[in-house]
Amino acid sequence: MNRIDWIIVRRLASNVGLTLVVLFGIVLLVESLNTTRFAALSATGGAPLALTAVALAAARWIIDTLPLTFLVGTVAGLLNLQATREMTVIKASGRSVWRVMIVPLAVTLAGGVLVTLLVDTAVIQFNRTLSPSSTTSGEVGRSGTLWLDEQQGDVHYILEAGYVNPSGTALGSVNVFLMEAPRDRIEAATAELVGNEWVMAQATRYRSNEMPEAMTDFRLPTARTAGDMRARIASIKDMTVWELAGSLAARLTDSRERAETETRFLRLLALPLTLCGSLVIAFAFTAGYRRTNKYGGAVLYGIVLGVLVYVVTEMAGRAGGAGVMHPVIAVAGPAVVAIVIGVTVLLNREDGRT
After folding, report:
1. What pLDDT digit, counting tens, does each position of 286-315 carry?
2. 283 and 299 in contact (C-beta within 8 Å)?
């Protein structure tokens, strides 16, 4: 990285950072308007806990809208370079826009990887520490109780567990309601997922008009895997990239859960590529030479295109999560299209061909 590259990266980074700070402040203000949640958290752990929770919620918003925010910040940085004629001097030195864009692309790629692997993970972990109940979904209620309704062959039962291990393979305070006659009820202190069975080392069977019967090594068949359980006890959006990878590696049998998990996992992995698409679009619409400093139309086109790409990305992500579209196409498609559009515009404006 030479001095010119350093100037460009520093100018773009400062404007992107300023944009993120401004948006973070706005989202922070919006989140603080939820007075009910703020009061509940303040009663639990005081004002510091409530403020931290609000800040973490705002951080999640920033990460979710990062491609669009990054586009706006990059456009502002390039306009700054144009207004001071620094971009004109850089091009006059013999550097093409392609050469100018190489180092910012590399920095953007590295920053996207950092956000995916570290920043997003840290925000989720802190949010989980402050409000564990907010990360539960599916069959897990606010109280932490798990309900499973399953039928395997002739065995139909509803399982209730008062405690669920984060791995999803160990349960505590278990009650099993057998739905077939004579409708027995099974109580057990613990249950573990071993292979395709829930294994209860010590259990008690309750049957109408009969004395309770103690049992050992009681087993119930199940089609759920460790990956299924991990996906069901936590909200997909509140799982880190490492946990998503673990769920996929644990063989998800539920097609809906697998589609949601795979789409979320690939979206995190594709974040660097999406940010690169935003950078290319910003360069395509604002890095060109102008005799005057009137860039209103170019900026408007760039931001509108960025918003369009963001909306398409969200819609494709929902389609991938619902299983309507293959997750790889749903995630990589919008990012690749954004890069292709940006490169096409640059070729037309800089090299005079498409």
Report:
1. 766 556 666 667 667 767 877 888 888 888
2. no
